[in-house]
Amino acid sequence: MIKQNVLDVLNLCKSYGNHLVLDDISFSIRENEIVGFIGPNGAGKSTLMKCLCGLIHMDSGNVTICGHDIQSQREKALSHQASLIESPGLFFNMTGYENLEIFASLKNVSKDKLQQMSDYTRIGDYLKKPVSSYSLGMKQRLALSIALLSSPQFLMLDEPMNGLDPSGVFELRKELRKMVDEQGMSLLISSHQLNEIEKIADRIIYIENGKIKEVQKQEQTITYQIRVNKIITDHRFRKLSDFLYKFSIQNPNELSVYLRKLEREGVQLLDITNTSDDLENMYTRIYGE
User: Fold this and answer.
1) Class of domain 5-217 as given by CATH
2) What is the pTM of this model?
3) Distances in Å between the alpha carbon of 260 and those of 89, 230, 252?
4) Where in the chain do CATH 3.40.50.300 domains reside?
5) How far apart are CA 279 and CA 195, in angstroms?
6) How far apart are CA 182 and CA 46, in angstroms?
7) Distance between CA atoms of residues 125 and 83, nearest Å
8) Chain centroid offset of residue 162 CA
9) CA-CA distance, 122 to 110, in Å (whole number)?
10) CB burial class (10 A; 0-12, 13-18, 19+) of residue 9?
11) Which CATH class is domain 222-287?
């Protein structure tokens, strides 16, 4: 089954005065896909997200969400998306539950959905307290629950892990993956926490100075380089030089299988290095130190 595009961005440009912030940006996001959005501060990530949810107008280009043009069919396009960009936009003098109620009435969602999202916040009795008393992590969870009230097909999150403790980060990552896999949602997520993006994203878009530098599909392949004491004849080991070989596996558990096979053939392992190009290495290669 061919997956449809939930988001299409074509030749998007945005300037502030003489400063070109977004320069001819084009990319797509498919159904059930999580796309990581990475770049240094000032690269244009937040500006692009604001263009995609209609908070600011682009100078030129086209954006369609679920087939609806964000300029000519603004209401229909925005009805399919939700976003959490920069700091959570909450009413700090009201309780968490009152915040949920206000947005639920604006989105015309049912009482059952309101209760579901109230439970989803997982902040318990704090829902009855003013938002001004919340930690940053609690505000993030409340804002995410509000964004999910309308069951969007496309969700944008800007630094959603801010303020979350390690268990909160793990929980959020699991929940987002579940929503994408089970509810058919697509997600564009921007974060400086590279290890978390690496664990959740299907593809990663790198941006710098308003231009897309590279798009990388996340592979599950793990690559190792080994130095041994004799020639290996197994074709799964690619020879780099005398007694230096390279091989790739899809599952970490396969490593012991490969090493036991070498041992049975009398090959002595002198050195082994994981040479997989992880996200931190990619970031350094693209943006420098």
Assistant:
1) alpha beta
2) 0.76
3) 56, 15, 14
4) 5-217
5) 7
6) 28
7) 26
8) 14
9) 20
10) buried
11) alpha beta
List per-residue pLDDT tens for the chain, 289 residues long. Answer: 567 899 999 999 999 999 999 999 999 999 999 999 988 888 899 899 999 988 899 999 999 999 999 999 999 999 899 888 877 788 999 999 999 999 998 888 888 988 988 988 888 889 999 999 988 888 888 988 888 888 899 999 988 887 777 887 888 888 888 888 888 899 999 988 887 788 888 888 999 999 998 777 765 567 888 999 998 988 888 888 889 998 888 777 788 888 888 988 899 999 998 776 667 777 777 777 5
Rounded Cα distance between 168 and 99, Å, is 22
Give the residues across from 60 on adjacent strands: 13
Q: What angle do CA 116, 53, 137 make, to 5 degrees?
A: 45
Q: List, by residue range, all CATH 3.30.70 domains of the chain.
A: 222-287
Q: Can you tell me the distance from the alpha carbon of 191 to that of 196, in angstroms, rounded to the nearest whole number?
A: 8
What tokens appear for 138 in the block? 């609690």
Q: Beta strand pairing status for 186-190 and 222-228?
A: unpaired
Q: Is 201 exposed, middle or buried (0-12, 13-18, 19+ CB in 10 A)?
A: buried
Write the burial class of residue 97 (CB in 10 Å: 0-12 exposed, 13-18 middle, 19+ buried): middle
User: Do 254 and 202 touch, CB atoms closer than 8 A?
Assistant: no
Residues linked to residue 158 through DSSP beta bridges, in sequence order: 190
Helix/strand/coil for 244: strand
Residue 44 CA to residue 63 CA, distance in Å, equals 16
DSSP state, 202? S
